[in-house]
Specification:
This is 1-(5-phosphoribosyl)-5-[(5-phosphoribosylamino)methylideneamino] imidazole-4-carboxamide isomerase. The protein has helices at residues 33-42, 53-58, 64-72, 87-95, 105-109, 111-121, 154-163, 185-194, 209-217, 227-230, 236-249, and strands spanning 3-11, 14-19, 22-29, 47-52, 77-81, 100-103, 126-129, 133-135, 138-140, 168-172, 199-203, 222-225. With 250 residues, it is α/β, with parallel strands linked by helices.
């Protein structure tokens, strides 16, 4: 079953979106983060995806109080990330009320360490953010808020994590992120072939209800919805309806 998951990206305590992960190309929205989270809950959301963009860049939690405030309201289960550099970061986010911790750079740079976290905290508590760009014939894995290039590829790490007991992967095609040009359906078809037992969350480029339906037909576990909701391309209840219809047809 495919679940639409609204997203809130935080920078300096504000709701923002970046274009293709570029911090210089930021759109700031006039929403209070906790009020926006409450609106998504009113519209039927059960999960919320939150990214501390300041933390992703610096390795320090800059928006932890906001994440804790959203989680403490008790209306949404929160998966949150940005700035996880060590196990203390995992513990701090869980203590702040996150149900799942999203691990990006460390998942790419230190997979053995992250596999240890999966063992200790459980596969349900860790989401691996393997965000990717297609370059020179391979799906590369930039890190540190997509500002640093790494040597490992998506095709190397995904099967490795599947064998290590991971459950959840969030994969963003960085070239589609924040662009509203449509998701890269072929990427998620590729991931399903690489590691069929993993629950994949699709992110990047969703612009319409047809995009939500198309991803649901690929069998992804979640569809992250950011700019499309913020800019009113469609509303969350309609995303749930089309996902449910697509799920029923599979």
């Amino acid at each position: 079953m495919t679940l639409p998951i609204p997203a809130i990206d935080l920078r300096d305590g504000k709701v923002v979106r970046l274009f293709q992960g570029d911090y210089a190309q930021q759109t700031t929205f006039a929403f209070e983060p906790e009020a926006l989270a409450a609106r998504y809950a009113d519209e039927g959301a059960t999960w919320l995806h939150v990214v501390d963009l300041d933390g992703a860049r610096t390795g320090r939690f800059e928006n932890l109080a906001t994440i804790a405030g959203i989680a403490s309201a008790g209306r949404l289960r929160v998966q949150a990330g940005g700035g996880i550099r060590d196990e203390d970061g995992v513990r701090r986010l869980l203590a702040a009320g996150a149900q799942r911790v999203v691990v990006g750079s460390m998942a790419i740079r230190a997979p053995e360490t992250v596999a240890g976290w999966i063992d200790r905290y459980g596969a349900e508590r860790i989401v691996l953010a393997l965000d990717t760009r297609f370059r020179d014939g391979a799906w590369t894995l930039p890190s540190a808020g997509w500002t640093a290039d790494e040597t490992r590829t998506l095709d190397e790490l995904v099967p490795w994590y599947e064998a290590a007991g991971a459950r959840h992967i969030l994969c963003t095609d960085i070239d589609r992120d924040g662009t509203m040009t449509g998701p890269n359906v072929a990427l998620y078809r590729h991931l399903a072939a690489l590691a069929p037992s993993l629950d994949v969350q699709a992110s990047g480029g969703v612009r319409s209800l047809d995009d939500v339906a198309g991803l649901a037909l690929q069998g992804v576990a979640g569809v992250i919805l950011g700019r499309a909701l913020l800019e009113g391309a469609f509303v969350l209840p309609d995303a749930f309806a089309v996902a449910q219809k697509a799920n029923a047809s599979c």
